[in-house]
Amino acid sequence: MSLAKINKYAVSNILNPERLVSLGRVAGSGGIYTPKLFFVMRGVIDSKRRKILKRLTRTAILKMSLRVASEGLRGDIPIRGEYQPDADFDLEATMDQILERYPTGIPALKSSDIVGIERRERKKNGVLILDASGSMMGERNINAALSSAVMAYSMRNDKFGVIAFNTKAFLIKGINDDVKIDDIMDKILDLEAVGYTNIEDALKVGALQLKGLITRFKWAILLSDGAYNKGGDPRYLCRQFEKLHVINLPGGKKWGERVCKDLARLGGGRYVVVRNYNEVPRALMKILRSPW
Fold first, then answer.
1. 83-101 pLDDT per residue, tens
2. Which end of the chain, N or C, is less surrounded by CB atoms within 10 Å?
3. Could you tell me the domains of the chain?
Protein backbone atom coordinates (compact mmCIF):
# COMPACT_ATOMS: atom_id res chain seq x y z
CA MET A 1 0.00 0.00 0.00
CA SER A 2 2.80 2.41 0.90
CA LEU A 3 4.62 1.71 -2.37
CA ALA A 4 1.39 2.00 -4.39
CA LYS A 5 0.90 5.56 -3.15
CA ILE A 6 4.33 6.46 -4.57
CA ASN A 7 4.58 4.25 -7.65
CA LYS A 8 1.53 2.26 -8.81
CA TYR A 9 3.41 0.79 -11.75
CA ALA A 10 6.10 -0.74 -9.54
CA VAL A 11 3.36 -2.54 -7.60
CA SER A 12 1.66 -3.55 -10.85
CA ASN A 13 4.88 -5.23 -12.02
CA ILE A 14 5.08 -7.45 -8.91
CA LEU A 15 1.34 -8.12 -8.50
CA ASN A 16 1.52 -11.63 -9.97
CA PRO A 17 -0.99 -14.50 -9.46
CA GLU A 18 0.96 -15.85 -6.45
CA ARG A 19 0.66 -12.52 -4.63
CA LEU A 20 -3.03 -12.32 -5.56
CA VAL A 21 -3.49 -15.68 -3.79
CA SER A 22 -1.96 -14.12 -0.67
CA LEU A 23 -4.35 -11.18 -1.02
CA GLY A 24 -7.17 -13.71 -1.24
CA ARG A 25 -6.33 -14.96 2.26
CA VAL A 26 -6.47 -11.37 3.56
CA ALA A 27 -9.79 -10.76 1.76
CA GLY A 28 -11.24 -13.93 3.26
CA SER A 29 -10.75 -12.52 6.75
CA GLY A 30 -12.74 -9.41 5.84
CA GLY A 31 -9.93 -6.87 6.08
CA ILE A 32 -10.00 -3.39 4.59
CA TYR A 33 -6.57 -3.63 2.90
CA THR A 34 -7.63 -5.50 -0.24
CA PRO A 35 -10.43 -3.00 -1.08
CA LYS A 36 -8.03 -0.07 -0.56
CA LEU A 37 -5.42 -1.66 -2.83
CA PHE A 38 -8.08 -2.31 -5.48
CA PHE A 39 -9.06 1.38 -5.71
CA VAL A 40 -5.44 2.49 -5.88
CA MET A 41 -4.47 -0.06 -8.53
CA ARG A 42 -7.59 -0.54 -10.65
CA GLY A 43 -6.55 2.05 -13.24
CA VAL A 44 -3.09 0.62 -13.95
CA ILE A 45 -3.43 -3.18 -13.93
CA ASP A 46 -4.67 -5.28 -16.85
CA SER A 47 -8.28 -6.46 -17.09
CA LYS A 48 -7.52 -10.03 -15.96
CA ARG A 49 -5.81 -9.00 -12.70
CA ARG A 50 -8.34 -6.22 -12.19
CA LYS A 51 -11.15 -8.78 -12.38
CA ILE A 52 -9.43 -11.00 -9.79
CA LEU A 53 -8.69 -8.08 -7.47
CA LYS A 54 -12.28 -6.83 -7.74
CA ARG A 55 -13.60 -10.28 -6.82
CA LEU A 56 -11.32 -10.35 -3.76
CA THR A 57 -12.46 -6.84 -2.83
CA ARG A 58 -16.09 -7.93 -3.05
CA THR A 59 -15.34 -10.93 -0.83
CA ALA A 60 -13.68 -8.74 1.82
CA ILE A 61 -16.54 -6.22 1.83
CA LEU A 62 -19.25 -8.89 2.02
CA LYS A 63 -17.42 -10.55 4.92
CA MET A 64 -17.25 -7.26 6.85
CA SER A 65 -20.88 -6.36 6.13
CA LEU A 66 -22.16 -9.78 7.20
CA ARG A 67 -20.51 -9.33 10.59
CA VAL A 68 -22.31 -6.02 11.07
CA ALA A 69 -25.71 -7.11 9.70
CA SER A 70 -25.73 -10.33 11.76
CA GLU A 71 -26.20 -8.27 14.93
CA GLY A 72 -29.89 -8.02 14.01
CA LEU A 73 -31.73 -5.01 12.67
CA ARG A 74 -35.40 -5.90 12.52
CA GLY A 75 -38.14 -4.22 14.53
CA ASP A 76 -41.55 -5.36 15.72
CA ILE A 77 -45.02 -3.86 15.52
CA PRO A 78 -47.16 -4.36 18.66
CA ILE A 79 -50.68 -5.43 17.58
CA ARG A 80 -53.33 -5.23 20.32
CA GLY A 81 -56.06 -7.86 20.44
CA GLU A 82 -57.37 -10.84 22.40
CA TYR A 83 -55.04 -12.02 25.14
CA GLN A 84 -53.34 -15.41 24.75
CA PRO A 85 -51.56 -17.33 27.56
CA ASP A 86 -47.82 -16.58 27.81
CA ALA A 87 -48.25 -13.47 25.62
CA ASP A 88 -47.55 -9.84 26.54
CA PHE A 89 -50.42 -7.58 27.54
CA ASP A 90 -51.09 -3.85 27.62
CA LEU A 91 -51.77 -2.88 31.25
CA GLU A 92 -53.06 0.63 30.54
CA ALA A 93 -55.41 -0.52 27.76
CA THR A 94 -56.59 -3.40 29.96
CA MET A 95 -57.45 -1.04 32.84
CA ASP A 96 -59.35 1.29 30.49
CA GLN A 97 -61.29 -1.65 29.08
CA ILE A 98 -62.17 -3.01 32.54
CA LEU A 99 -63.39 0.38 33.80
CA GLU A 100 -65.51 0.79 30.67
CA ARG A 101 -67.04 -2.69 30.94
CA TYR A 102 -67.57 -2.70 34.72
CA PRO A 103 -68.29 0.86 35.90
CA THR A 104 -69.85 -0.36 39.18
CA GLY A 105 -67.19 -2.93 40.09
CA ILE A 106 -65.41 -5.99 38.72
CA PRO A 107 -67.36 -9.26 39.36
CA ALA A 108 -64.66 -11.67 38.14
CA LEU A 109 -61.83 -10.94 35.73
CA LYS A 110 -61.87 -13.06 32.55
CA SER A 111 -59.15 -13.52 29.94
CA SER A 112 -61.32 -11.64 27.43
CA ASP A 113 -61.00 -8.54 29.66
CA ILE A 114 -57.24 -8.44 29.12
CA VAL A 115 -55.84 -6.61 26.07
CA GLY A 116 -53.11 -8.79 24.62
CA ILE A 117 -50.15 -7.70 22.48
CA GLU A 118 -49.02 -9.71 19.47
CA ARG A 119 -45.64 -8.66 18.11
CA ARG A 120 -45.41 -8.79 14.33
CA GLU A 121 -42.30 -8.17 12.31
CA ARG A 122 -42.40 -4.73 10.73
CA LYS A 123 -41.79 -4.57 7.00
CA LYS A 124 -39.09 -2.15 5.89
CA ASN A 125 -39.25 0.02 2.80
CA GLY A 126 -36.32 2.32 2.24
CA VAL A 127 -33.73 3.82 -0.06
CA LEU A 128 -30.02 4.16 0.66
CA ILE A 129 -28.44 7.22 -1.00
CA LEU A 130 -24.64 7.02 -1.11
CA ASP A 131 -22.09 9.74 -1.76
CA ALA A 132 -19.42 8.23 -4.03
CA SER A 133 -17.79 11.51 -5.11
CA GLY A 134 -14.04 12.13 -5.25
CA SER A 135 -11.93 10.82 -2.38
CA MET A 136 -8.48 9.45 -1.63
CA MET A 137 -7.89 5.72 -1.98
CA GLY A 138 -11.60 5.08 -2.67
CA GLU A 139 -12.83 5.50 0.93
CA ARG A 140 -16.24 6.64 -0.26
CA ASN A 141 -16.54 3.79 -2.75
CA ILE A 142 -15.58 1.27 -0.06
CA ASN A 143 -18.03 2.91 2.34
CA ALA A 144 -20.77 2.85 -0.32
CA ALA A 145 -20.18 -0.82 -1.09
CA LEU A 146 -20.03 -1.79 2.60
CA SER A 147 -23.16 0.22 3.49
CA SER A 148 -25.18 -1.21 0.60
CA ALA A 149 -24.13 -4.74 1.59
CA VAL A 150 -25.30 -4.12 5.19
CA MET A 151 -28.59 -2.82 3.76
CA ALA A 152 -28.97 -5.83 1.45
CA TYR A 153 -28.33 -8.37 4.22
CA SER A 154 -30.63 -6.70 6.75
CA MET A 155 -33.45 -6.08 4.25
CA ARG A 156 -33.25 -9.15 2.06
CA ASN A 157 -36.98 -9.87 2.65
CA ASP A 158 -38.07 -6.24 2.24
CA LYS A 159 -38.23 -3.56 -0.45
CA PHE A 160 -35.11 -1.39 -0.69
CA GLY A 161 -33.29 0.66 -3.26
CA VAL A 162 -29.67 1.78 -3.54
CA ILE A 163 -28.59 5.01 -5.22
CA ALA A 164 -25.00 6.23 -5.55
CA PHE A 165 -24.08 9.68 -6.74
CA ASN A 166 -21.19 11.92 -7.68
CA THR A 167 -21.66 14.36 -10.60
CA LYS A 168 -25.08 12.73 -11.10
CA ALA A 169 -27.13 10.00 -9.43
CA PHE A 170 -26.83 6.34 -10.45
CA LEU A 171 -29.59 3.84 -9.70
CA ILE A 172 -27.73 0.79 -8.39
CA LYS A 173 -30.85 -1.13 -7.38
CA GLY A 174 -34.45 -0.09 -7.96
CA ILE A 175 -36.75 -0.54 -4.99
CA ASN A 176 -38.80 -3.21 -6.79
CA ASP A 177 -35.88 -4.86 -8.57
CA ASP A 178 -34.52 -8.29 -7.73
CA VAL A 179 -30.75 -7.79 -7.87
CA LYS A 180 -28.10 -10.10 -6.41
CA ILE A 181 -25.85 -8.61 -3.75
CA ASP A 182 -22.75 -9.43 -5.86
CA ASP A 183 -24.17 -7.37 -8.73
CA ILE A 184 -24.84 -4.44 -6.38
CA MET A 185 -21.22 -4.62 -5.23
CA ASP A 186 -19.87 -4.75 -8.78
CA LYS A 187 -21.83 -1.67 -9.86
CA ILE A 188 -20.48 0.34 -6.93
CA LEU A 189 -16.90 -0.91 -7.33
CA ASP A 190 -16.98 0.15 -10.99
CA LEU A 191 -18.03 3.73 -10.20
CA GLU A 192 -15.36 6.31 -10.92
CA ALA A 193 -14.63 8.72 -8.05
CA VAL A 194 -14.92 12.28 -9.31
CA GLY A 195 -14.70 15.62 -7.57
CA TYR A 196 -18.36 16.68 -7.90
CA THR A 197 -21.20 16.11 -5.42
CA ASN A 198 -24.76 16.42 -6.70
CA ILE A 199 -27.06 15.81 -3.71
CA GLU A 200 -30.03 17.43 -5.46
CA ASP A 201 -30.08 14.85 -8.26
CA ALA A 202 -29.63 11.99 -5.76
CA LEU A 203 -32.60 13.11 -3.64
CA LYS A 204 -34.77 13.49 -6.74
CA VAL A 205 -34.03 9.90 -7.78
CA GLY A 206 -34.58 8.67 -4.20
CA ALA A 207 -37.94 10.42 -3.86
CA LEU A 208 -39.06 9.00 -7.21
CA GLN A 209 -38.19 5.48 -6.08
CA LEU A 210 -40.28 5.82 -2.91
CA LYS A 211 -43.22 7.55 -4.59
CA GLY A 212 -44.82 4.34 -5.86
CA LEU A 213 -44.88 2.60 -2.46
CA ILE A 214 -48.31 2.70 -0.80
CA THR A 215 -47.23 2.71 2.84
CA ARG A 216 -46.58 5.24 5.57
CA PHE A 217 -43.42 3.44 6.67
CA LYS A 218 -41.02 4.48 3.92
CA TRP A 219 -37.80 6.39 4.39
CA ALA A 220 -34.43 7.30 2.93
CA ILE A 221 -30.95 7.36 4.43
CA LEU A 222 -28.44 9.80 2.93
CA LEU A 223 -24.70 9.29 3.48
CA SER A 224 -22.79 12.44 2.56
CA ASP A 225 -20.66 15.29 3.90
CA GLY A 226 -23.27 17.73 2.58
CA ALA A 227 -20.75 19.83 0.61
CA TYR A 228 -22.54 19.84 -2.76
CA ASN A 229 -20.73 21.49 -5.68
CA LYS A 230 -23.01 20.37 -8.49
CA GLY A 231 -26.75 20.99 -8.82
CA GLY A 232 -28.80 23.27 -6.58
CA ASP A 233 -29.41 23.50 -2.86
CA PRO A 234 -31.10 20.15 -2.05
CA ARG A 235 -32.98 21.27 1.09
CA TYR A 236 -36.22 22.05 -0.74
CA LEU A 237 -36.57 18.33 -1.61
CA CYS A 238 -36.97 17.24 2.04
CA ARG A 239 -40.76 17.65 1.87
CA GLN A 240 -40.90 14.80 -0.65
CA PHE A 241 -39.81 12.27 1.99
CA GLU A 242 -41.79 10.73 4.86
CA LYS A 243 -38.47 10.36 6.70
CA LEU A 244 -35.04 11.47 5.56
CA HIS A 245 -32.19 10.36 7.82
CA VAL A 246 -28.67 11.70 7.31
CA ILE A 247 -25.29 10.21 8.23
CA ASN A 248 -22.74 13.04 8.05
CA LEU A 249 -19.53 11.62 6.53
CA PRO A 250 -16.10 12.88 7.64
CA GLY A 251 -13.80 15.20 5.74
CA GLY A 252 -16.35 17.81 4.73
CA LYS A 253 -16.69 21.54 5.33
CA LYS A 254 -18.57 23.33 8.12
CA TRP A 255 -21.25 24.60 5.73
CA GLY A 256 -21.71 21.03 4.46
CA GLU A 257 -22.35 19.91 8.02
CA ARG A 258 -25.07 22.56 8.30
CA VAL A 259 -26.65 21.25 5.09
CA CYS A 260 -26.68 17.71 6.52
CA LYS A 261 -28.29 18.90 9.78
CA ASP A 262 -30.92 20.86 7.85
CA LEU A 263 -31.72 17.92 5.58
CA ALA A 264 -32.34 15.66 8.60
CA ARG A 265 -34.35 18.31 10.45
CA LEU A 266 -36.52 19.28 7.46
CA GLY A 267 -36.91 15.61 6.49
CA GLY A 268 -38.09 14.65 9.98
CA GLY A 269 -35.28 12.12 10.32
CA ARG A 270 -32.27 11.43 12.49
CA TYR A 271 -28.90 13.13 12.14
CA VAL A 272 -25.79 11.07 12.92
CA VAL A 273 -22.25 12.41 12.53
CA VAL A 274 -19.31 10.03 12.15
CA ARG A 275 -15.66 11.00 12.62
CA ASN A 276 -14.16 8.22 10.47
CA TYR A 277 -15.40 5.73 7.92
CA ASN A 278 -15.07 2.79 10.32
CA GLU A 279 -18.07 4.16 12.23
CA VAL A 280 -20.40 4.27 9.20
CA PRO A 281 -21.72 0.65 9.11
CA ARG A 282 -22.82 0.71 12.75
CA ALA A 283 -24.27 4.21 12.40
CA LEU A 284 -26.30 2.85 9.49
CA MET A 285 -27.33 -0.18 11.55
CA LYS A 286 -28.45 2.11 14.38
CA ILE A 287 -30.85 3.93 12.05
CA LEU A 288 -32.03 0.70 10.39
CA ARG A 289 -33.11 -0.65 13.79
CA SER A 290 -35.74 2.08 14.00
CA PRO A 291 -36.02 4.14 10.79
CA TRP A 292 -39.58 5.33 11.50
1. 666 667 667 777 777 777 7
2. N
3. 2-64 (no CATH), 76-121 (no CATH), 123-289 (3.40.50.410)
Looking at the predicted structure, is the pLDDT value of residue 17 above 60? yes
pLDDT in tens, 143-176: 888 899 888 888 888 889 999 999 999 999 999 9
pLDDT digits over 52-90, tens only? 899 889 988 888 888 777 655 444 445 556 666 666 766
Q: What is the 3-state secondary structure (H, E, C) of the chain?
A: CHHHHHCHHHHHHHCCHHHHHHHHHHHHCCCCHHHHHHHHHCCCCCHHHHHHHHHHHHHHHHHHHHHHHCCCCCCEEEEEEECCCCCEECHHHHHHHHHHHCCCCCCCCCHHHCEEEEEEECCCEEEEEEECCCCHHHHHHHHHHHHHHHHHHHCCCCEEEEEEECCCEEEEECCCCCCCHHHHHHHHHCCCCCCCCCHHHHHHHHHHHHHCCCCCCCEEEEEECCCCCCCCCHHHHHHHCCCEEEEECCCCCHHHHHHHHHHHHHCEEEEEECCCHHHHHHHHHHHHHCCC
